[in-house]
Amino acid sequence: MRALFLLAFLLSLTSCYESTRNCKDYKTGTFRFDYAVDGVSKSANFKRTERYSINFYDGKTDSSEVKWINDCEFVLYKINPKSIAEKDPIHMKILTTTDSSYTFEYAKASFNEGEPQRKEKGIAIKID
Known about the structure:
The chain is mainly beta and about 130 residues long. The protein has one domain (about 20-125): Lipocalin, CATH 2.40.128.490. The chain contains 1 helix and 8 strands. An 8-stranded antiparallel barrel has the order 1-2-3-4-5-6-7-8. A hairpin with a 3-residue loop joins β6 and β7.
């Protein structure tokens, strides 16, 4: 009986917790995103407007159209895909926000039957 009471108490504490999401603060702006390729740390910048996201990385520029689903979720569509894989839209979801950054999750928005759905996480830091 005591264990059941303790479990109910712990569940009530965790059900009250909600992570902060002020997604409107991050719909537009200039951001930095740190990532790794083959164990090498890299950094990229991107500028997002209500309608477009322009990525700057490794001396290249890449643009996508942004379609907002709600204040915290959007889908990116490459404007000039260079391969079949780049034609796949990317679903982005803002999970949490701080006063200067947001944590997000992203995955292909469409996938073939039987293909595993792979989700990745990252942090974007607002620089302007």
